[in-house]
Amino acid sequence: MAKRRKVYIWLPYVSKITVKPSSVKIAYKGGDLQAEWKEIHSIMFYGESVDFPQEFFEKCAFYKIPVIIHRRNMPRAVFVTPTLPPDQENILSRQIIFRESKKKKAYIGKKLLQAKFKSMSWLVPVERDLLYKICDVDKMIGIEAWHARRYWESYFLKLGFESGRRENAEDNVVKKVLDAVSKFISGVLLRWILYHNLSPYHGFLHKPTDYPSLVYDLMEPYRGFFDKVVFDTIKQAKRQEATDDSQLVAYAIENIKHFLEQEVYVESTRQIATFNEILHGIVLALRVYLLGETRRFIVPMPSKPNGGRTINSGYRLYGHHAGITNFWPKTKQIAEEFEKKWLIAKLA
Protein backbone atom coordinates (compact mmCIF):
# COMPACT_ATOMS: atom_id res chain seq x y z
CA MET A 1 0.00 0.00 0.00
CA ALA A 2 1.29 3.48 -0.89
CA LYS A 3 2.61 5.59 1.97
CA ARG A 4 0.19 8.29 3.04
CA ARG A 5 1.54 11.71 2.17
CA LYS A 6 1.43 14.65 4.58
CA VAL A 7 -1.08 17.32 3.58
CA TYR A 8 -0.44 20.92 2.53
CA ILE A 9 -3.04 23.13 4.22
CA TRP A 10 -4.32 26.47 2.86
CA LEU A 11 -6.96 28.23 4.96
CA PRO A 12 -8.66 31.55 4.10
CA TYR A 13 -10.10 33.85 6.77
CA VAL A 14 -9.82 31.64 9.85
CA SER A 15 -12.39 32.27 12.64
CA LYS A 16 -11.47 29.63 15.23
CA ILE A 17 -8.56 27.33 16.12
CA THR A 18 -9.06 24.46 18.57
CA VAL A 19 -5.86 22.69 19.65
CA LYS A 20 -6.04 19.07 20.83
CA PRO A 21 -3.20 16.79 21.97
CA SER A 22 -2.98 14.84 18.70
CA SER A 23 -4.95 17.01 16.27
CA VAL A 24 -6.15 20.52 15.44
CA LYS A 25 -9.56 21.76 14.34
CA ILE A 26 -9.78 25.00 12.37
CA ALA A 27 -12.90 26.86 11.25
CA TYR A 28 -12.40 29.02 8.15
CA LYS A 29 -14.40 30.75 5.44
CA GLY A 30 -15.87 27.82 3.54
CA GLY A 31 -15.83 25.06 6.13
CA ASP A 32 -13.99 23.28 8.94
CA LEU A 33 -10.80 21.25 8.88
CA GLN A 34 -9.58 18.67 11.36
CA ALA A 35 -6.17 17.06 10.92
CA GLU A 36 -3.71 15.00 12.94
CA TRP A 37 -0.56 16.98 13.76
CA LYS A 38 1.65 14.20 12.40
CA GLU A 39 -0.15 14.32 9.02
CA ILE A 40 0.39 18.06 8.38
CA HIS A 41 3.16 19.13 6.00
CA SER A 42 2.77 22.93 6.17
CA ILE A 43 0.05 25.53 6.83
CA MET A 44 -0.71 28.80 5.08
CA PHE A 45 -3.25 31.25 6.52
CA TYR A 46 -4.67 33.69 3.98
CA GLY A 47 -6.40 36.98 4.82
CA GLU A 48 -7.66 38.25 8.19
CA SER A 49 -7.52 35.55 10.87
CA VAL A 50 -8.42 34.99 14.49
CA ASP A 51 -5.79 35.38 17.24
CA PHE A 52 -3.53 32.32 17.34
CA PRO A 53 -3.36 30.31 20.60
CA GLN A 54 0.14 29.89 22.01
CA GLU A 55 -0.29 26.11 22.13
CA PHE A 56 -0.94 26.12 18.38
CA PHE A 57 2.55 27.45 17.66
CA GLU A 58 4.07 25.14 20.26
CA LYS A 59 2.54 22.12 18.49
CA CYS A 60 3.73 23.38 15.09
CA ALA A 61 7.25 23.78 16.45
CA PHE A 62 7.23 20.28 17.94
CA TYR A 63 6.11 18.68 14.65
CA LYS A 64 8.35 20.94 12.51
CA ILE A 65 5.35 22.44 10.71
CA PRO A 66 6.12 25.82 9.10
CA VAL A 67 3.33 28.40 9.28
CA ILE A 68 2.91 31.17 6.71
CA ILE A 69 0.52 34.08 7.30
CA HIS A 70 -0.25 36.07 4.15
CA ARG A 71 -2.57 38.95 3.40
CA ARG A 72 -3.23 40.27 -0.08
CA ASN A 73 -1.63 43.69 0.34
CA MET A 74 1.27 42.69 2.59
CA PRO A 75 4.63 43.01 0.80
CA ARG A 76 6.00 40.11 2.85
CA ALA A 77 4.38 37.18 4.56
CA VAL A 78 4.90 36.27 8.21
CA PHE A 79 6.92 33.06 8.63
CA VAL A 80 6.79 31.08 11.86
CA THR A 81 9.44 28.37 12.02
CA PRO A 82 10.87 26.09 14.73
CA THR A 83 14.46 26.66 15.82
CA LEU A 84 17.21 24.60 14.21
CA PRO A 85 18.53 21.72 16.34
CA PRO A 86 22.26 21.03 16.74
CA ASP A 87 23.56 19.20 13.66
CA GLN A 88 26.36 16.69 14.07
CA GLU A 89 27.42 17.25 10.46
CA ASN A 90 27.63 21.03 11.04
CA ILE A 91 25.60 21.75 7.93
CA LEU A 92 24.84 25.35 8.97
CA SER A 93 28.54 26.26 9.13
CA ARG A 94 29.07 24.79 5.65
CA GLN A 95 26.11 26.76 4.33
CA ILE A 96 27.47 30.05 5.62
CA ILE A 97 31.00 29.30 4.37
CA PHE A 98 29.70 28.56 0.87
CA ARG A 99 27.56 31.68 1.01
CA GLU A 100 30.61 33.82 1.80
CA SER A 101 32.70 32.24 -0.99
CA LYS A 102 32.26 34.26 -4.21
CA LYS A 103 33.12 31.25 -6.35
CA LYS A 104 30.78 28.80 -4.59
CA LYS A 105 27.99 31.35 -4.34
CA ALA A 106 28.23 32.15 -8.05
CA TYR A 107 28.24 28.46 -8.97
CA ILE A 108 25.08 27.73 -6.95
CA GLY A 109 23.39 30.88 -8.26
CA LYS A 110 24.17 29.97 -11.85
CA LYS A 111 22.69 26.49 -11.49
CA LEU A 112 19.50 27.91 -9.97
CA LEU A 113 19.03 30.56 -12.66
CA GLN A 114 19.84 28.24 -15.57
CA ALA A 115 17.08 25.93 -14.33
CA LYS A 116 14.75 28.89 -13.88
CA PHE A 117 15.22 30.00 -17.50
CA LYS A 118 14.48 26.46 -18.60
CA SER A 119 11.24 26.26 -16.60
CA MET A 120 10.11 29.55 -18.14
CA SER A 121 10.82 28.42 -21.70
CA TRP A 122 7.14 27.50 -22.16
CA LEU A 123 6.59 31.25 -22.61
CA VAL A 124 10.00 32.78 -23.46
CA PRO A 125 12.20 30.17 -25.17
CA VAL A 126 15.94 30.55 -24.58
CA GLU A 127 18.07 28.93 -27.26
CA ARG A 128 21.44 29.51 -25.57
CA ASP A 129 22.95 29.62 -22.09
CA LEU A 130 22.38 33.21 -20.93
CA LEU A 131 24.95 32.78 -18.15
CA TYR A 132 27.73 31.22 -20.25
CA LYS A 133 31.14 32.08 -18.72
CA ILE A 134 29.55 34.52 -16.25
CA CYS A 135 30.88 33.99 -12.72
CA ASP A 136 29.60 37.08 -10.92
CA VAL A 137 26.33 36.94 -8.98
CA ASP A 138 25.50 40.61 -9.57
CA LYS A 139 25.87 40.18 -13.34
CA MET A 140 23.68 37.07 -13.19
CA ILE A 141 20.98 38.98 -11.35
CA GLY A 142 21.18 41.71 -13.99
CA ILE A 143 20.61 39.16 -16.76
CA GLU A 144 17.81 37.57 -14.75
CA ALA A 145 16.13 40.99 -14.42
CA TRP A 146 16.34 41.51 -18.21
CA HIS A 147 14.85 38.07 -18.81
CA ALA A 148 12.12 38.72 -16.21
CA ARG A 149 11.01 41.91 -17.99
CA ARG A 150 10.56 40.00 -21.23
CA TYR A 151 8.82 37.15 -19.46
CA TRP A 152 6.32 39.23 -17.49
CA GLU A 153 5.50 41.51 -20.42
CA SER A 154 4.60 38.44 -22.47
CA TYR A 155 2.81 36.80 -19.52
CA PHE A 156 0.47 39.70 -18.86
CA LEU A 157 -0.04 40.50 -22.53
CA LYS A 158 -1.23 36.97 -23.27
CA LEU A 159 -3.58 37.15 -20.29
CA GLY A 160 -5.05 40.39 -21.62
CA PHE A 161 -3.53 42.70 -18.99
CA GLU A 162 -1.33 45.71 -19.72
CA SER A 163 0.46 45.97 -16.36
CA GLY A 164 3.52 43.97 -15.37
CA ARG A 165 4.41 41.75 -12.40
CA ARG A 166 5.33 44.60 -10.03
CA GLU A 167 3.10 47.40 -11.34
CA ASN A 168 -0.20 48.59 -9.84
CA ALA A 169 0.03 46.09 -7.02
CA GLU A 170 -3.24 47.19 -5.39
CA ASP A 171 -5.33 46.50 -8.51
CA ASN A 172 -3.35 43.70 -10.09
CA VAL A 173 -5.41 40.55 -9.51
CA VAL A 174 -2.86 38.36 -11.33
CA LYS A 175 -0.09 39.58 -9.04
CA LYS A 176 -2.23 38.79 -6.00
CA VAL A 177 -2.72 35.22 -7.19
CA LEU A 178 0.96 34.80 -8.07
CA ASP A 179 2.02 36.12 -4.66
CA ALA A 180 -0.40 33.80 -2.83
CA VAL A 181 0.86 30.77 -4.79
CA SER A 182 4.47 31.80 -4.10
CA LYS A 183 3.76 31.97 -0.36
CA PHE A 184 2.02 28.59 -0.47
CA ILE A 185 4.99 26.94 -2.24
CA SER A 186 7.36 28.63 0.20
CA GLY A 187 5.72 26.67 3.02
CA VAL A 188 6.29 23.37 1.20
CA LEU A 189 9.97 24.16 0.59
CA LEU A 190 10.42 25.56 4.08
CA ARG A 191 9.32 22.23 5.55
CA TRP A 192 12.06 20.35 3.67
CA ILE A 193 14.71 22.97 4.48
CA LEU A 194 13.92 22.74 8.18
CA TYR A 195 13.68 18.95 8.02
CA HIS A 196 17.29 18.75 6.78
CA ASN A 197 18.56 21.35 9.28
CA LEU A 198 19.52 24.02 6.74
CA SER A 199 19.08 27.68 7.62
CA PRO A 200 16.18 29.16 5.63
CA TYR A 201 17.63 32.65 6.20
CA HIS A 202 20.97 32.21 4.43
CA GLY A 203 20.45 32.23 0.67
CA PHE A 204 22.81 32.56 -2.27
CA LEU A 205 20.85 34.70 -4.75
CA HIS A 206 18.54 36.56 -2.38
CA LYS A 207 20.83 38.43 0.02
CA PRO A 208 18.68 39.59 2.97
CA THR A 209 18.67 37.47 6.13
CA ASP A 210 15.48 39.01 7.61
CA TYR A 211 13.26 36.64 5.62
CA PRO A 212 13.77 33.01 4.47
CA SER A 213 15.88 33.84 1.41
CA LEU A 214 17.01 30.25 0.83
CA VAL A 215 13.35 29.28 0.31
CA TYR A 216 13.08 31.73 -2.59
CA ASP A 217 16.46 30.64 -3.97
CA LEU A 218 15.33 27.03 -4.19
CA MET A 219 11.97 28.04 -5.65
CA GLU A 220 13.62 29.77 -8.63
CA PRO A 221 14.20 26.66 -10.81
CA TYR A 222 10.47 25.87 -10.72
CA ARG A 223 8.95 29.36 -11.01
CA GLY A 224 7.97 28.84 -14.62
CA PHE A 225 5.96 25.71 -13.83
CA PHE A 226 4.02 27.40 -11.04
CA ASP A 227 3.46 30.49 -13.20
CA LYS A 228 2.01 28.23 -15.89
CA VAL A 229 -0.48 26.75 -13.40
CA VAL A 230 -1.59 30.28 -12.45
CA PHE A 231 -1.73 31.29 -16.12
CA ASP A 232 -4.01 28.36 -17.02
CA THR A 233 -6.16 28.98 -13.91
CA ILE A 234 -6.76 32.62 -14.81
CA LYS A 235 -7.42 31.84 -18.49
CA GLN A 236 -10.07 29.33 -17.46
CA ALA A 237 -11.56 31.70 -14.87
CA LYS A 238 -11.84 34.49 -17.43
CA ARG A 239 -13.70 32.19 -19.81
CA GLN A 240 -16.12 31.40 -16.99
CA GLU A 241 -16.26 35.09 -15.96
CA ALA A 242 -15.05 34.23 -12.44
CA THR A 243 -12.86 37.19 -11.46
CA ASP A 244 -13.30 37.46 -7.68
CA ASP A 245 -9.85 37.73 -6.05
CA SER A 246 -10.40 35.19 -3.30
CA GLN A 247 -12.00 32.72 -5.73
CA LEU A 248 -9.05 32.97 -8.11
CA VAL A 249 -6.59 32.39 -5.28
CA ALA A 250 -8.57 29.35 -4.10
CA TYR A 251 -8.70 27.89 -7.64
CA ALA A 252 -4.97 28.47 -8.14
CA ILE A 253 -3.99 26.90 -4.80
CA GLU A 254 -6.08 23.80 -5.54
CA ASN A 255 -4.51 23.49 -9.00
CA ILE A 256 -1.04 23.86 -7.47
CA LYS A 257 -1.84 21.05 -5.02
CA HIS A 258 -2.80 18.79 -7.94
CA PHE A 259 0.34 19.84 -9.81
CA LEU A 260 2.55 18.90 -6.85
CA GLU A 261 1.16 15.36 -7.04
CA GLN A 262 1.80 15.04 -10.79
CA GLU A 263 4.38 12.43 -11.77
CA VAL A 264 7.41 13.44 -13.84
CA TYR A 265 10.64 11.77 -14.92
CA VAL A 266 13.92 13.10 -13.49
CA GLU A 267 16.99 12.15 -15.52
CA SER A 268 19.51 13.29 -12.87
CA THR A 269 18.43 10.41 -10.62
CA ARG A 270 16.64 8.26 -13.24
CA GLN A 271 13.43 8.16 -11.27
CA ILE A 272 9.75 8.79 -11.64
CA ALA A 273 8.71 11.21 -8.90
CA THR A 274 5.98 13.69 -8.03
CA PHE A 275 6.71 17.40 -8.22
CA ASN A 276 6.56 17.56 -4.43
CA GLU A 277 9.40 15.04 -4.36
CA ILE A 278 11.37 17.27 -6.73
CA LEU A 279 10.98 20.17 -4.27
CA HIS A 280 12.32 17.85 -1.58
CA GLY A 281 15.03 16.79 -4.00
CA ILE A 282 16.51 20.25 -4.55
CA VAL A 283 17.02 20.55 -0.78
CA LEU A 284 18.75 17.15 -0.81
CA ALA A 285 20.86 18.26 -3.79
CA LEU A 286 22.06 21.38 -1.99
CA ARG A 287 22.70 19.47 1.22
CA VAL A 288 24.97 16.83 -0.33
CA TYR A 289 26.85 19.54 -2.23
CA LEU A 290 27.42 21.60 0.92
CA LEU A 291 28.64 18.52 2.77
CA GLY A 292 31.09 17.65 -0.01
CA GLU A 293 29.41 14.35 -0.84
CA THR A 294 29.32 15.35 -4.51
CA ARG A 295 31.39 17.82 -6.54
CA ARG A 296 28.38 19.23 -8.40
CA PHE A 297 25.13 20.86 -7.40
CA ILE A 298 22.63 19.06 -9.61
CA VAL A 299 19.15 20.58 -9.63
CA PRO A 300 16.43 17.94 -10.19
CA MET A 301 14.24 18.92 -13.15
CA PRO A 302 11.49 17.26 -15.21
CA SER A 303 13.19 15.73 -18.25
CA LYS A 304 13.26 12.88 -20.75
CA PRO A 305 15.30 9.69 -20.65
CA ASN A 306 18.36 10.18 -22.85
CA GLY A 307 20.48 7.09 -22.18
CA GLY A 308 24.19 7.37 -21.50
CA ARG A 309 25.97 7.05 -18.20
CA THR A 310 24.19 7.54 -14.89
CA ILE A 311 24.72 10.98 -13.37
CA ASN A 312 26.41 10.97 -9.96
CA SER A 313 23.98 13.38 -8.31
CA GLY A 314 24.77 12.24 -4.77
CA TYR A 315 21.12 11.93 -3.72
CA ARG A 316 17.95 9.98 -4.46
CA LEU A 317 14.40 11.27 -4.71
CA TYR A 318 11.58 9.62 -2.81
CA GLY A 319 10.17 8.24 -6.05
CA HIS A 320 10.22 5.11 -8.23
CA HIS A 321 13.64 3.77 -9.25
CA ALA A 322 14.74 2.34 -12.56
CA GLY A 323 14.55 -1.43 -12.76
CA ILE A 324 10.90 -2.06 -12.00
CA THR A 325 8.65 -3.78 -14.53
CA ASN A 326 7.83 -1.56 -17.53
CA PHE A 327 9.82 1.33 -16.04
CA TRP A 328 11.22 2.75 -19.29
CA PRO A 329 8.00 2.65 -21.37
CA LYS A 330 6.16 4.34 -18.50
CA THR A 331 8.99 6.85 -18.15
CA LYS A 332 8.82 7.81 -21.81
CA GLN A 333 5.06 8.27 -21.64
CA ILE A 334 5.22 10.42 -18.48
CA ALA A 335 8.02 12.59 -19.90
CA GLU A 336 6.21 13.17 -23.19
CA GLU A 337 2.90 14.00 -21.49
CA PHE A 338 4.57 16.49 -19.16
CA GLU A 339 6.48 18.18 -21.98
CA LYS A 340 3.36 18.47 -24.10
CA LYS A 341 1.26 19.91 -21.29
CA TRP A 342 3.71 22.19 -19.47
CA LEU A 343 6.63 23.08 -21.67
CA ILE A 344 5.51 23.44 -25.27
CA ALA A 345 1.77 23.90 -24.95
CA LYS A 346 0.52 26.57 -27.38
CA LEU A 347 -1.04 29.56 -25.67
CA ALA A 348 -4.57 30.50 -26.67
Structural write-up:
With 348 residues, this protein is an alpha+beta fold. Helices cover 45% and strands 14% of the residues. The protein has 10 helices and 10 strands. It has helices at 54-62, 91-100, 102-119, 137-159, 173-195, 213-219, 223-239, 245-260, 275-290, 327-343, and strands spanning 7-12, 14-19, 23-28, 31-36, 40-46, 67-70, 78-80, 263-266, 271-274, 320-321. Strands 1-5-6-7 form a 4-stranded mixed beta sheet, with helices on one face. A hairpin with a 4-residue loop joins strand 8 (263-266) and strand 9 (271-274). Helix 5 (173-195) crosses helix 9.
Across the major sheet, the strand order is 1-5-6-7
* Unreliable parts: 344-348
Order of helix and strand elements from N to C terminus: EEEEEHEEHHHHHHHEEHEH
Structural class: alpha+beta
Fraction in beta strands: 5-15%
Task: Give the number of helices.
Answer: 10
Helical amount among residues, as a percent range? 40-55%
- End-to-end Cα distance, whole Å, is 41 Å
Largest sheet: 4 strands, mixed
Shape: globular
In summary, what is this structure?
With 348 residues, the protein is an alpha+beta fold. It is built from ten helices and ten strands.
Notable traits:
348 residues, alpha+beta, 4-stranded mixed sheet, 3-stranded antiparallel sheet, 10 strands
